[in-house]
Amino acid sequence: MIYTVIDVETTGRGNRMTEISIFKYDGTTVIDEFTSLVNPESDIPMHITALTGIDNQLVCDAPVFADIAQEVLDITVDSVFVAHNVNFDYNIIAGEFKRLGIDFRRKKLCTVRLSRKLLPGHKSYSLGKLCKALNIDLVDRHRARGDAEATVILFELLLKQPEALDVFNAFMKKNSREATLPPNLPKETFEALPNAPGIYFFKDKKGKIIYVGKAKDIKKRVLSHFYSKTKKSLNMVRETGDIDFKLSGSELIALLMEDAAIKHNFPVYNKVAKRTIQSFSIFSYEDRNGVLHLAMNKGKLTPNPLITFYNTRDVRLYMEKICAQYNLCPKYCHLQESVWECSHYNITNCKGICKGEELSEDYNERVQQAIEFITGAKQEFVLKEKGRHSNEEAFVLIKDNEYLGYGFIDKSEQITHLDDLNAFLIPQKNNIDIQKILKHKLVGI
Questions:
Q1: What are residue 333's phi and psi, to 5 degrees?
Q2: Pairs from 270-273 (Cβ < 8 Å, separation ≥ 24)
Q3: Which secondary-structure segment (H or E) carries 237?
Q4: CA–CA separation, 255 and 216 (whole Å)
Q5: Distance (Å, rounded) from C-alpha 59 to C-alpha 38?
Q6: pLDDT tens-digit profile of 177-200?
Q7: Please, which residues bridge with residue 409 across strands?
Q8: Closest Cα partner for 23 from 9, 40, 2?
Q9: 138 closest CA partner among 157, 151, 123
Q10: Exposed, middle or buried by CB within 10 Å (0-12, 13-18, 19+), for 58?
């Protein structure tokens, strides 16, 4: 068996290659080597230079990857690609080849996962700390040749372990997930994930939550992150040391759970909207001519709102619905401004209050009916959802068009009134994202 032990350095941002080192190894001897700086054709950030010592000046005259691509292909052909956290180095190289229109495919082995299996009990499996623990001389840390050379020595040590042959063969089987899983994630943790709806938590080696996601099938969705080639997924997977989960029973409950978990934990790999939640309300007032108006404004400027929304589109759609349903005037519902008479493109059933063809008393009566409908629609109701197992049901509780939370309840429980659900309710905060999830169920617009 021929192995190519590889390490690459990158720009960090954008993950463009700045250096590559490849040692061709036959199991006993290094039979070839290729090492080169690489011009990434992009700027190298200062913090990367501080870590690696590689700066823009050092690579300005170096070959671009296209110039060395054939040498990389030649030295790695018919070999097993070996690296410490193999998915990172492999995906960087595969990405560079993809830019050239070349499909780069090699069998892979990860010295982090192999070390965890064959050399158990170490506090850390980072290359630096593992080499120190094993008395492996690591020169030029965070330079491609220094790291690759140390990985060769580590790999040689792994090959000498009693169970090495069986472990290596098992890791390289087509149906093995060992080359796919994050280097610091125990295989047992992944295998314990369920094929069921819920949310999942990626955690770093210290147990801090770095990402929250939701899925109809947790295990399948988590696996998709491991195959992803995006920079975010590559970095997140490299940091992952544990994965936890919570079952939801349904996709809707999973969406609600995910929103709450993200806003509570602020995981570094989730995009959490840092915005002030703006609300928009419908209210009523009477003008100097005694005509009742329905109008829209920002929630904070509306002391006695009839109903509240969390985006301008929804509040306008709802106003249009009410205006058409009760034969109201688009002008006096403030769907049209600065006009003498209404001329709405869609609502054409105004009875003429804006033209003086209808008494204000008759018009106001229909406005009052609309107000009663709007306020009457603000009632408590429950959305029933599938439970986490066959003997359970889930529910979402909404009151006055406000989301109160969700809960799970055993089917044997006797529920005779909505108040009985309070004992099982997991209270949650209402916000614009929840409104988007539930908007069609809340007001039916």
A1: -100, 5
A2: 270/211, 270/212, 273/433
A3: helix 231-239
A4: 10
A5: 6
A6: 676 788 888 889 999 999 999 999
A7: 393
A8: 2
A9: 151
A10: middle
pLDDT tens digits in sequence order for the chain, 445 residues long: 899 999 999 998 778 999 999 999 999 999 999 999 999 999 999 999 999 999 999 999 999 999 999 999 999 999 999 999 998 999 999 999 999 999 999 999 999 999 999 999 998 899 999 999 999 999 888 899 999 999 999 999 999 999 998 999 888 876 666 767 888 888 899 999 999 999 999 999 899 999 999 999 999 999 999 888 777 888 898 899 999 999 999 999 999 999 999 999 999 999 865 555 678 899 999 999 999 999 999 988 888 888 888 788 889 999 999 999 999 999 999 999 889 999 988 899 999 999 999 999 999 999 999 999 988 765 677 889 999 999 999 999 988 767 899 999 999 888 888 888 889 999 998 877 887 788 666 555 4
DSSP assignment of 96-107, as one string? HHHHTT-----E
CA separation for the pair 228, 233 (Å, rounded)? 6
Angle ∠(417,418,419) on CA atoms, nearest 5 = 90
Q: How would you write 361-410 as a 3-class SS string? A: HHHHHHHHHHHHHHHHCCCCEEEEEECCCCCEEEEEEEECCEEEEEEEEE
How far does CA 175 lie from the centroid of its chain?
Answer: 27
In 3D space, the residue among 379, 355, 380, 353 whose CA is nearest the CA of residue 367 turns out to be: 353
Measured CA angle at 325 (ends 324, 329), to 5 deg: 40
Token readout for 7 is 């390490």
- Residues near 351 by Cβ (< 8 Å), separated by ≥ 6? 327, 329, 357, 358, 362, 363
Closest of 110, 113, 105, 111 to residue 79, by C-alpha:
105
**How many CA atoms within 13 Å lie on the side-chain side of 274?**
3
Of 231, 221, 229, 234, the residue nearest 103 (C-alpha): 229
| Residues 6 or more apart in contact with residue 115 via CB below 8 angstroms | 122, 125, 130, 154, 158
Q: What CA–CA distance (Å, rounded) separates 154 from 160? A: 10
Q: Which residue has the tokens 């506090």?
A: 123
Using DSSP's 3-state secondary structure scheme, residue 434 falls into helix
